[in-house]
Amino acid sequence: MKNLEISAPTKKRLLYLLKILEKSESISITSSRIEEETGWSRDTVRKDISALGGLGSANGYETEHLSSAIRKALGLDKRRRLCIVGLGRLGSAYLNFGALNSSEFELAAGFDTNVNRVEILSSPVPLYPAYKMSEIIERLSINIGLLCVPEAQAQSAAEKLIRSGICGIVNFAPVVLKTPPSIAVRNVFVIDELRTLAAFL
Amino acid sequence: MKNLEISAPTKKRLLYLLKILEKSESISITSSRIEEETGWSRDTVRKDISALGGLGSANGYETEHLSSAIRKALGLDKRRRLCIVGLGRLGSAYLNFGALNSSEFELAAGFDTNVNRVEILSSPVPLYPAYKMSEIIERLSINIGLLCVPEAQAQSAAEKLIRSGICGIVNFAPVVLKTPPSIAVRNVFVIDELRTLAAFL
DNA sequence: CCATGTGAATGCGTTCACAGCC
DNA sequence: GGCTGTGAACGCATTCACATGG
């Protein structure tokens, strides 16, 4: 039941399953049904879920119950605070992206080296010049950063984020960040997705 | 050397390695160096690369040589044709995204159900109303679609793409697409990345 | 019969250990 | 010494097979 004893492959599947459950309108779901939707074998699905502690019955799993168990097991029940670093086209678009404020996430600040931009942009969250990053991140207990700066500044901005105490980065720059193993990084870049797709066609 | 005998984990690493090689300025690189940059063990790295056929020497791998071997092995040497489906904010932004026209990819068309939009938008590639999708995709031999339509239309648009003969989809809608196993799908959605991050913190 | 859950067996990827080479 | 490449050992995730329950 502890977060760390769930294997990485299982975690990935549970995250994906959670998404399916949240869209589902049925009150319950079976492992065979999940097999149909995902392609994973029902055995794997049952093993994954049973890692959360036997919460199935003779007619499957109760949707609501299962999703909250997954959220809890994966640590998605605590709300995480986010910040956006780099307020260009992409960054400023995310400032106004509603989904970043939910029961799970809270967008708490935006940063940019360009002081002008920080002052001019209209935003639902406070914006700060980049030199205040450490101070603000600590004060607001922000733990995840969305890195939206241009390629050339990505590495140094990431290091600054890490020094400020952040523990996870979503990286939108087309760069392989060098980060210590304690920092979790997710790269979001279309060309990579296209390549992956092409390699698996 | 054939695409299919390379295991999925190896493919993923090779894709990532390719990205590193392309940024690298050194003329050669060793497995230990790659270990430092990525965290993968040098043994794994060597096994991965040797799957492409022994192209290493006593002082490592020649950068240029290695990248082109990877591109070839993963099928990234053939140029793929792309289309964008759904020309809202996101879709129309990608119309003008230079990286979608490279030696590897060629953006060939855009589609939207809204005929007005198709006529008004300025775009470097031809735009068509959605009902022409099958015809155009076949005529231009497009094989990958970027799905940028709103959530509610994602599933039906995906099906239309598949019927038109596409074999890969990059899905930007926050939906789990139901697709036959022959179709490769990559989902790009920030909330998923954030959740994954949170689950692995 | 259809479900879940779980030890046992299988299969596959990573790691180890060493041979060969510069 | 450094490096690559590769069979052998290992470990872990998936699959199998079966016990249990409505």
Overview of the structural elements:
The structure is a homodimer of 201-residue chains. With 201 residues, the first copy, chain A, is α/β, with parallel strands linked by helices. Chain A has two domains: 3-73, Winged helix-like DNA-binding domain superfamily/Winged helix DNA-binding domain (Arc Repressor Mutant, subunit A, Orthogonal Bundle), CATH 1.10.10.10; 80-194, Rossmann fold (3-Layer(aba) Sandwich). The first copy, chain A, is built from nine helices and nine strands. Chain A has helices at residues 8-23, 31-38, 42-50, 63-73, 89-95, 115-120, 133-139, 151-163, 190-200, and strands at residues 28-29, 56-57, 60-62, 80-85, 105-112, 127-129, 144-147, 168-171, 184-187. In chain A, the strands form two sheets. Chain A has a six-stranded parallel β-sheet with strand order 6-5-4-7-8-9, sandwiched between helices. In chain A, α8 links the parallel β7 and β8. In chain A, α1 packs antiparallel against α4 and α2 (31-38) packs across α3 (42-50). Chain A is elongated, with a radius of gyration of 20 Å. The first copy, chain A, starts with 7 loop residues before the first helix and ends with a helix. The structure holds a DNA duplex (22 and 22 nucleotides).
Please supply descriptive tags for the structure shown above.
homodimer; Arc Repressor Mutant, subunit A; Rossmann fold; 2 domains; 6-stranded parallel beta sheet; 3-stranded antiparallel beta sheet; 9 helices; DNA-binding
The parts of chain A where pLDDT drops under 50 for at least 5 residues are none
Major β-sheet profile of chain A: 6 strands, parallel
CA gyration radius of chain A, whole angstroms: 20 Å
Q: Outline of chain A, from the CA principal axes?
A: elongated
Structural class of chain A: alpha/beta
The total count of helices of chain A amounts to: 9
* CATH fold assignment of the largest domain in chain A: Rossmann fold
Strand order of the largest sheet of chain A: 6-5-4-7-8-9
Number of structural domains of chain A: 2
CATH architecture of the largest domain in chain A: 3-Layer(aba) Sandwich
CATH class of the largest domain in chain A: Alpha Beta
Strand content of chain A: 15-25%
